[in-house]
Amino acid sequence: KAGLLERVHLVLQVHDELVYEIEEEVLKPAGQIITEAMQGVLLRSYLRYKTEVPLLVHSGFGPNLGEAK
Fold it and tell me: Is the model's pTM score more than 0.85?
């Protein structure tokens, strides 16, 4: 809906870590969408898993993976 499909690409997933390639101009809105999606994944699951423990998401940005952490 945000029109970011051509500007944001998932390039790597290792367990619970996701690495995206995002155009710099859309970094902030894309980061917010990804963070919200990850934090709310349990509520949208087919199990409708509910817990009082929040699912926290950490994100980092950088020109390469070593600088993004």
Answer: no
